[in-house]
Amino acid sequence: MRLPDAVSIREVGPRDGLQNEAPVPTEAKVRLLDALATTGVRRIEAVSFVHPKAIPQMADADQVWAAATRQPGIRYSALAPNSRGVTRALDAGFTEIEVVVSASDTHNRRNVNRSIDESLEDIARLIPAVHARGGSLEVIIATSFGCPYEGDVPVSRVVSIVDRVVAEGADRLAFGDTTGMATPRRVVELVEAVRSRHPDKPVLLHFHNTRGTALANILAAMQVGVTEFDASVGGLGGCPYAPGASGNVATEEVVHMLEDMGVSTGIDLEALIEVARLAEEIVGRPLPSGVLRAGPRTRTVAVDGV
Ligand code: ZN
Prior knowledge:
The protein has helices at residues 13-19, 26-36, 61-67, 83-91, 105-112, 116-132, 155-167, 184-197, 214-223, 251-260, 269-283, 290-294; strands at 8-11, 43-48, 75-79, 96-102, 136-142, 172-177, 203-207, 228-231.
């Protein structure tokens, strides 16, 4: 098995996770951010600067960010859906900004009320604006592995979006499995297609565990050279199109598996499990993480039978 020595995990529970949960108080969001910062995680997607009417869960993004203890050595990022959001993120002091375009036109229209082309034109304007203020822009391509409205998304369509945003100066690429439709085969196909055209562009993968394939997808992605992944503590979040479905892959499940395989994450698993417990307390429901339920494989208990 070809595995990297280390991977870079970006914790997205405070943003993608909480965005798909019932709203929680500002103070709880700050508590979660600050707790995550003590686990050894080096990247955190902290907030999203969206219109409060569109996503009320993120209405207090400025207050959350102002109150959070920003740890040196951690790369914090913010998601912004449009130029107004990007300006808010830059004004708040973020230098790592993420914007989203969907590979499916129907999903893009439902998500941001625009066609893919309109979103790409907007991104083309935002890239120089972010660079002018010393920031970097990551383009997240949502529904890269399938769309809940359109079904399969051809690799060629994702690649054509990649070609365009790379030509316009996007600093990083992320591929979102927004509703958990990826399988290892699809991951390898897409990554190889992108890498063959843009070998030097940083690529991050974002898997939801909606159908239980997230860890398998991460394993497949590492074997074709990907070393950056999103994950959410406890598996916080859900799927807006499938009530009750799992959210992002749980960070502690990723850390647990990779560390045992000799792939360093830099994250303290026991500390992270404590934060997953805090996340459960904050959202007031059990979270889907198996490692949170069962504990790490090294935590043995005395048993009588077999
Ligand atoms: Zn997501």
